[in-house]
Amino acid sequence: MNHPDRERSPYVGAMMRVVWQWVRDQLYAGVVAAGYDDLNAAHVALWRHPGIDGLRPSQLADHVGITKQSVNDLLGHLERRGYLERVTDPADGRARVIRLTSKGRRLEETIYAEAGVAQLQIAEIVGPRRFAQLHSTLELLTEQLS
User: Is the pTM of the predicted complex or chain greater than 0.85?
Assistant: First the structure.
């Protein structure tokens, strides 16, 4: 018996999720290969454009869509390993902000370099013209939906 959903093409969101998971896996594999083997994929997933330096943990939680407790657990691990510090926010003495250490900045550079490698691989798969269209379409969606 045929299931009606199997005959339907996947929705855009489902296809974007597959691509995002592939990119996330590529980033993490590249970070581990670069020697950052004290992190897991959840730590690497905290980094989103434009970065985490200067954000409050609550802002980061909202940005990545996880609980404040989960973000603080991940930040605690990163802090204990010397990637960042949580310091008093000069604008609000009750709040904390994330400040990357030099080790954290090197990690960030590695993450963004791996993102560039993944982007190049996607461009190779779809070709330059389709990639340019994909990029401009995603820019438009990002502007309109954020």
Answer: yes
